[in-house]
Design a protein that fits this description.
single chain; mainly alpha
């Protein structure tokens, strides 16, 4: 932006200088014409025999001056053309620079958008992985709990069966003892 302002300032200064030079050249031409008219009027008052000679001399000088003015004009026009070409080149440079800046900004914006898209995509992948990991942990925890419940139930069943078996053994033992005692009593009564 600073460079654009400097280029614009240079173009304005160059344009002002061209206008001043054109004005100075126009003033010079007017001054020469005025001097010619003044000399011509002065010569009119001289004797008649010198009029033709003076007229021819003035005409020759006028032609010389016209040639000088023409050359000055052509040089001014050529300089104007060069300056105009330079200004056009400067304007094209500014336009090209602005175009390149716009393309650069567009490229950077696209790169930033792509980077943000990748970041969001990566965050989604990480979130999905975390959710899958937590789901796997919960699944394993549920399996572990179910296994513990199954083991606890099996252990409880085994303990119950052991108690039942022990109770049956006790009952059989008591029956055997009662039967043995009854036999002893019979033997005692017989004796």
């Amino acid at each position: 932006m600073k460079r654009d302002a400097e280029i614009a300032k240079t173009m304005m200064e160059e344009q002002e200088r061209v206008i001043k030079e054109e004005s100075a050249a126009e003033d010079k031409r007017n001054e020469v014409k005025a001097q010619n008219y003044f000399d011509l009027e002065k010569q009119v008052e001289e004797p008649e025999r010198k009029k033709q000679e003076t007229y021819e001399q003035l005409l020759k000088e006028k032609l010389m001056i016209d040639e000088i003015v023409r050359k000055i004009y052509e040089e001014d026009q050529l300089e104007k053309q060069h300056k105009l070409e330079k200004m056009n080149a400067t304007r094209r440079y500014i336009e090209e620079f602005q175009k390149e800046q716009a393309l650069w900004r567009k490229k950077k914006r696209e790169e930033m958008e792509e980077e943000n898209r990748k970041i969001i995509e990566f965050a989604h992948i990480q979130q999905q992985r975390e959710e899958n990991r937590m789901a796997k942990i919960q699944e394993n925890e549920e399996k572990r709990r179910q296994l513990q419940d199954a083991l606890a139930q099996k252990l409880e069943e085994m303990l119950r069966q052991r108690d039942d078996l022990e109770q049956v053994r006790q009952e059989l033992y008591q029956e055997e003892q009662a039967e043995l005692h009854a036999r002893k009593l019979k033997v005692s009564f017989r004796n």
